[in-house]
Amino acid sequence: MLFHVRMDVRLPHDLPQEEAVEIIAREKAYSQELQRSGKWRHIWRIAGEYANYSVFDVKDNTELHEILSGLPLFKFMHIEVAPLLRHPSSIRGDDT
Ligand SMILES: O=C(O)CC1=CCC(=O)O1
């Protein structure tokens, strides 16, 4: 199943710099491992915002929830999820 996900990151102003750097490094490693696995298909920065649009390809809602709630930045994020399906007007036979 494909899901479009928007993640907005809000780091608290009083979060120590070293802690923020460490969490962001873990976030990057976690994300890149999932990208290599094919489950995290796309990640795009939203221009001018500390936010991204991502596309996930996972088995079901439960797997998506497990992945998102495992994000090192999860507690500092606002996340919006939209399930995707093929549009009947799409000229593409698959989702490439
Ligand atoms: O910077 C972001 O948008 C948050 C994030 C998600 C995965 C990652 O590496 O950073």
Give structural notes.
The chain is an alpha+beta fold and 96 residues long. It has a single domain (2-84), classed as 2-Layer Sandwich (Alpha-Beta Plaits). 31% of the residues lie in helices and 30% in strands. It has 2 helices and 4 strands. The chain has helices at residues 17-37, 61-69, and strands at 2-9, 40-45, 51-57, 77-84. The chain has a 4-stranded antiparallel beta sheet. Strand 2 (40-45) and strand 3 form a beta hairpin. The protein is elongated, with a radius of gyration of 15 Å. The mean pLDDT is 96. Bound molecules: the ligand O=C(O)CC1=CCC(=O)O1.
SSE layout and pairings?
Blueprint: E1 2-9, H1 17-37, E2 40-45, E3 51-57, H2 61-69, E4 77-84
The protein binds ligand LWBT4IAB.
Residues 7, 9, 27-28, 31, 51-52, 73 line the site of the ligand O=C(O)CC1=CCC(=O)O1.
**Shape assignment:** elongated
- Kindly name the structural category: alpha+beta
Q: Provide the residue-averaged pLDDT.
A: 96
What is the CA–CA distance across the termini?
14 Å
CATH architecture: 2-Layer Sandwich
Short description:
This protein has 96 residues and is an alpha+beta fold.
Task: Write out key terms for the chains shown.
single chain; about 100 residues; alpha+beta; Alpha-Beta Plaits; 2 helices; elongated; binds the ligand O=C(O)CC1=CCC(=O)O1
